[in-house]
Amino acid sequence: MKKLKRSSRLVEMTQYLLFRPHTLIPLTTFAEAYSSAKSSISEDLAIIKEAFENEGLGDLVTLAGAAGGVKFIPRIPKQASLQIIRNICQQLEQRERVLPGGYLYMTDILGQPFIVNEIGKMFATYFAGRDIDVVMTVETKGIPLAYATASYLNLPVVIVRRDNKVTEGSAVSINYVSGSSKRIQTMSLARRALKEESKVLIIDDFMRAGGTVHGMMNLLQEFRATVKGVGVFVESGEVNEEEHLVEEYVSLAKLTGVDEKTKQITVSPGNFFDDEWGVDEG
After folding, report:
1. DSSP category for residue 25
2. What total number of domains does the chain contain?
3. Which residues pair with 58 in a beta bridge?
4. Residue 63: beta bridge partners?
5. Residue ranges of the chain whose pLDDT lies below 50
6. Which pLDDT score, from 0 to 100, does residue 181 have?
7. Lower CB density within 10 Å: C or N end of the chain?
8. By the 8 A CB rule, do 279 and 125 touch?
9. 31: which DSSP letter?
10. Residues in CB range of 233: below 8 A, 6 or more apart
11. Distance from C-alpha of 219 to C-alpha of 226, rounded to nearest angstrom
């Protein structure tokens, strides 16, 4: 227990909350840590709540009762998200990103912590109100996005492998059709990696027809798991609706055209921005 000035206490409490999103923290945790009355702690939390809301950091929800406390829910305003995505779209439209075969290079963007964290915060904002146990992705480029999303939702991450690793023990493997190459490929998940009947959020970096995501959905059936949502960083707009293997998903950006000859690339905000959304803790 320690006695601090209110200014110092506010800094410590803010940091404590930021590093424990979606976690119910009893008021007694702070009262005992700072040898303060609950009334004083409540006043501190009111100041932090106002600051969070004014700065667009998220919501501080108070739950009354003996089992109550406070819970920090990270959130990013829609307008701020749109500004970030528009900037990312401009970066993705750089001519030198066109690769042979009409592919788009974006590994460098996924290597920037600030961008990855903001992407994770957007997905966490959208899916915050859903009952989710784990965030899933397939190796490799979707991994940083999955971890960023999971950090804001305070959830574990499960990684689907392209092949079975001996170090992960027995695994479930399935074949799936890649949406880009139309080839039969294999993905696997260690039996110990996911509990049966888990509720899963799928996050991926790119989706064309949705073959990889659809493969993960089929793999999850082997674990009797439920897909609670699908979020993709960039989707291809060059695929007809009837070719989509995934019906419900959220995309942050949409690649609507790549001309390999002229090096012309067109990227726009995804369907993430089509509808109203917000945080709902139910």
Report:
1. B
2. 2
3. 74
4. 69
5. 277-282
6. 60
7. C
8. yes
9. H
10. 110, 119, 142, 145, 204, 205, 206, 251, 252, 253
11. 11
Query: Which SS3 state, helix, strand or coil, does residue 200 take?
Result: strand
Match 């690649």 to its residue by tokens: 255
**Which structure tokens are listed for 175?**
């074949």
Residues 127 and 216 in one domain: yes
DSSP 3-state of 205: strand
Closest to 121 in 3D by CA, of 91, 100, 90, 152? 152
Is the same domain home to 110 and 200?
yes
- Helix/strand/coil for 75: coil
100's CB contacts (< 8 A; 6+ apart) are 260
Residue with tokens 């066109």: 98
Residues 93 and 12 in one domain: no
At 14, list the tokens: 């803010």
Please tell me the distance from the alpha carbon of residue 187 to that of residue 39, in angstroms, as a whole number.
54
Helices (H), 101-178: 113-127, 143-153
The model's pTM: 0.91
The domain of 104 spans 78-273
Take residue 159 and report the two structure tokens written for it.
């990684």
Last residue of a domain, one of 43, 74, 105: 74
* The pair of three-digit structure tokens given for residue 63, joined into one six-digit string: 């739950």
Residue 236 lies in a domain: yes
Among 169, 145, 165, 166, which Cα is nearest to 157's?
145
* Shared domain check, 69 and 83: no
Q: Same domain for 57 and 107?
A: no
> Are residue 29 and residue 125 in the same domain, yes or no?
no
